Amino acid sequence: DYLSPSRRKTKAVRNIGGENFPVVIAFRTEGCKETNPSFPPDYIYAGRALPEIPESGVEYILDADVWKGEANTWPAFNHEQLFTVSSYQTELKFLFTSYPALTDEILACLKTHSEMVVISQSHHPNRLGEHRALVHQLMSKKLQNPVVFFQHYAENQAEDLQIKAAADMGALLIDGFCDGIFLYKHGTLNPDVTDATAFGILQAGCGRMVFKQTGFLPLL
């Protein structure tokens, strides 16, 4: 209901979904794993390998086929790996998928595995519409898996990134669909800027505070 929006009902998986504030997932390449302590992400997607010296207190997401069950790490699957999901004994799993890829097989997997968090991706010109369609499909099937929205950018100026990301994510926050933000940029901006942008969007959209501070972040 766009006139009286309320948050989509989801089942909490650790600190994602339910009554929890939306989380921030950060992306770090092999050569840049550090994070700014002023904007600590809830999770870092590290892809194919953990950093040689993982940061203390940081939780990492790894591709499922290289995940070995290390402490403070969680597996991420794609649609080609669904047949292996049941063999991973862990309280939190992630699934990268998109609305066009949301097959009956994936929907059945999500129904069976309530511990799975969806990371919604889109390459459609109308990404907002496609992200919304994915959530509406989950709701129509009465699935309560949390949804994190993956957004990708190529901006090289902080202001450009902030404006575009806020426009993309603001509507999803107002809809009540957002259990987390995962911003990824191809440009030359420092990853800390991307993390700070994600926190700024959440603070503006739902009141999430960094370290419970009450001041506004000078981002948006």
Automatic annotation (TrEMBL):
One of its GO terms (molecular function) is 4 iron, 4 sulfur cluster binding. GO terms for biological process: isopentenyl diphosphate biosynthetic process, methylerythritol 4-phosphate pathway; terpenoid biosynthetic process. This is Uncharacterized protein.
